[in-house]
Every structure is written in structure tokens, then in C-alpha cells.
Amino acid sequence: MRRRATPPPSPLPQRDGVDPVRVRLPGQGDWATVREHLVARLTGAGPGVVDDMLARGLVVGADGASVAADAAYVPGMYVWFHRDPPPEVPVPFPLEVVHRDEHIVVVDKPHFLATTPRGSHVTETTVARLRRELGVPELGAAHRLDRLTAGLVLFTVRPEERGAYQTLFRDRRVRKEYEAVAPYDPSLALPRTVRSRIVKERGVLAAYEVAGEPNAVSRVELVERLEELGRYRLTPTTGQTHQLRVHMNALGVPILGDPLYPVVAPPVPAGDFRRPLQLLARSLEFTDPVTGTAHRFRSTRTLGAWSSYGEWADGAGQ
Q1: What is the CATH number of domain 96-313?
Q2: Do 318 and 302 meet the contact criterion of CB atoms below 8 Å apart?
Q3: Which residues are catalytic?
């Protein structure tokens, strides 16, 4: 099998902690110019946006020189540019650095802050914030945590080591423990291990379970009860999208504050941080693949529905 060539380094610096967009022109196509391909490819950019970027010299090649609007299409060519994201509402909660050394940074992220740039969340993301706050432009995520989930996330300092840490998660050599607040059901026998097949379709907000070989496994335990609520320890051994949220919903105890399960709720206005999803990535445990050190990190955050039940039920914030 032919290995794909390593892309050349970006000729553009980061902006606000965000890398420029890199586009590789396909090996086959009917486009006469780079402009034609970008217009066809970047359909979500809006009319005239590509032409404006080219006219302003904002699209560059590997040598850093601006790409002309009539530049010929060259299969395999790379171009870079920064996109101008729409204004983002700042997430008004701090990032807490739990651990930092020359190889990794572990942070305790708040609810509502995405891990990496995606969609409408670009500069208000954990990785962009950390790059700015710590002054480490090459910082990268070893895994992801849902935007609505709070808790521990592992980042790598050196790009050449990122693959080793990502492999830990891929090979399930990281023990992850979550905490959730959800309704208490006295008829639900716990602890138990939930196994199912979860499907998440691109463009569809909610994941769902289907028949077939299980690809998602979660251990669910009740830690304690507070009136009609339960505090649960969730231990996944797989990492499907929304896995814990889907499994808790399937058990009939959907996690409090979940806008997707059991039903998709209307979008929350930007800047409304009053009812965070009551799910927390409580701990990470692994053996460092670079140093051999045994790590165990634990979040110090609390879930509002449990620590301040009355206030949270009335719509209080984080």
C-alpha cells in the first residue's frame, strides 16, 4: 500500500490559537483553476467569500506566496487560509490545569467549552484557549470530550509524541471514570454493564441504538441517592459518540440537563449557561507511553444538580 506523503508545514501562523485551514487539491477533477475547486468545495463559506479571500491574498501555497484567482489547478497541491468565524459568545468559566510537564497537559474543562474547533465553536475551544494562555502553539488534543461534558482532557505538548498518546485511547489502555446525576429508579437493578450497538450519523444530532454486535460497553453504578435523584459512577470501556448519554437514556434514567436524550430539545440561545449537562469526566488513569510514569488524575469539579440541588432545579448556573 502506498503511504500518503506528509503534508508540508503550514506557511501561516496560528491566529487566536487556531491553526489555518489546509486544503489538498484532489488528484482528479475537472477544475481549471484553484478558485474553481475552492468555490465548489467550500459551499458553506457563502457567495463571494472565496473570491474575496483570493483578491485579498489570504489563500497561500506551501511557499507562503498568495495564490492568484486564475492560478492553474495542480493535483496534490496544498493551500492554506484562515477562516473568519462568526463572533462567539465567551464561555465564562475558567480552565483548570491539573498537570503540566514537558510532554502532556491535563486540564479540567468546564461545561459548554468544546475540546477542539468545530462548526461554530472555533476560538472558544479548550485547545485554542490553552494555546493562548500557556503560550504553547503546538499543543494538541489526545482525545475529545463533548462540548457539554465537563472534566478531564489530555493534551500533548510535542506533535511527534501525539500519536503515542492517541494510541492509548484507541487501544483502550486508559481507564476513564465519569460521574452523572440522573433520576433515581428503585426498580433499576444496579450495578450492571450495558452493552449495545450505537450508531451516530453525520448531520444527525442524536445517536441511537441498533441491533447487531455491540460496539459500546459501559459499567453503571449508583453511588448515592438524594430524594428522587441518583449520583452515578459510569465506567466506559469503549468510546462511541454520546455513549454514556445513550446508555443512561436506554436504562430509563437520562442524564439531567441533556438536550438530546430522550428527545431533542429546541436550541438553547447562545450565552445561556444555566443548565449544564450533569455529566463529568471524573478521572483518567494510564501509564505514560513516553516516560513510563503511572498517572492518575482526578477532577475537583462538582455537578450542580447534586451539590446545590434546589438552586440548580430553579435554573441556576454552573
Answers
A1: 3.30.2350.10
A2: no
A3: 146
Which H or E element spans position 221?
strand 216-226
Query: Contact at 8 Å (CB) between 252 and 186?
Result: no
Please name the residue that has the C-alpha cell 472565496.
50
The neighbouring-strand residues paired with 255 are none
| Sequence-ordered list of residues with C-beta below 8 angstroms from that of 288, at least 6 positions apart, any chain | 103, 104, 294, 295
Q: For the chain, what are the domain ranges? A: 21-81, 96-313
pLDDT digits over 41-66, tens only?
988 778 889 999 999 999 999 999 99
**What are the distances in angstroms from CA 113 to CA 63, 88, 179, 300?**
35, 11, 18, 17
CA proximity to 217, closest of 234, 194, 197: 194
Within a 13 Å sphere around the CA of 310, how many CA atoms are in the beta-carbon half?
A: 0
Distance CA 143, CA 165 (A): 9
Interatomic CA distance for residues 127 and 139, integer angstroms: 7
Return the pLDDT at 220.
98
Name residue 66's beta-bridge partners.
Answer: 60
Interacting residues of 100 by C-beta distance below 8 A, sequence separation 6+: 106, 134
Distance CA 151, CA 162 (A): 20
pLDDT 10s digits, 170-195: 999 999 999 999 999 999 999 999 99
The CA distance from 70 to 112, in Å, is 42
Residue 73 identity (one-letter amino acid): Y
Q: Are strands 229-236 and 175-183 parallel, antiparallel or unpaired?
A: antiparallel
